[in-house]
Design goal:
This is Trm112 family protein. By secondary structure, the protein is of the alpha+beta class. The protein is 17% helix and 18% strand.
Length: 95
Amino acid sequence: MPKLSPELLSVLRCPVTGSALEQEGDELVTVGASGDKLRYRIEDGIPLLLPPELLPAAAAAPADQHDAGQHGAGQHGAGQHGAGQHGAAPRHAAE
């Protein structure tokens, strides 16, 4: 598995602890509060940063249950995005 870029690794954080992540093979790893290593798989070059308790539910969900499968082309269009903001930049979850 190729290494993720240093730029990407510098912005990724553990969803449980908020700590920086390090790549070990095909996983990203951080140390949890109890001293245990928290591991997150990298599949097809994409880090899967789901907390461990959500992995079984994500694996069990059919493909049409995932976000990308819920919206047809044009159904989640510009008319709904930013309604009432009149030209304001979209807000991100981190704001």
